[in-house]
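From: lab user (bench 3)
To: helpdesk
Subject: output format question, protein + adenosine-3',5'-cyclic-monophosphate

Hello, I'm new to running complex predictions and I'm not sure whether the block I got back is the full result or only part of it. Here's what I submitted:
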Amino acid sequence: MAVTRTFSIIKPDATRRNLTGAVTKMLEDAGLRVVASKRIHMTREQAEGFYAVHKDRPFFGELVDFMMSEPVVVQVLEGEDAVTRNRDIMGATNPADAASGTIRKALALSIGENTVHGSDSDENAAIEIAFFFQPEEIVG
Ligand code: CMP
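Helpdesk reply: Thanks, we reran it on our side. This is the complete output you should expect:
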């Protein structure tokens, strides 16, 4: 299995509850390595741009407002088959559907306040990493 990278966001519901370390520990315990990380307060432009694929969905306004509401931690994660590994440890989007042992089962509050984002493909991981990080900020 190839070592690849994925993009992760520790969302406002987690930073508000001081769970940055708890989430990161679950990612690391799942075999992912944090090779870039920064705490930012997303602008409207960043939130709308990052989630542009969802702009016609009924929850788009709520999603953007939430992502701007408190700081987030954007991360690049590296590991074997990182996209799938990260999605497995995150669990289903809706915490009510998430398997036990996953981040969202353990920590998420709702489908909107669901603690973490993770890329859904290698192609989107590259796009999402480039949205927030310069190449020199990633140190593997
Ligand atoms: P994420 O993986 O960040 O990608 C898009 C986000 O939209 C998703 O996680 C959820 O947090 C959010 N989302 C998806 N469906 C809904 C919904 N029905 N209501 C509110 N937010 C949603």
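A quick orientation on your result: The beta strands are 3-10, 33-40, 72-80, 116-118. Let us know if anything else is unclear.
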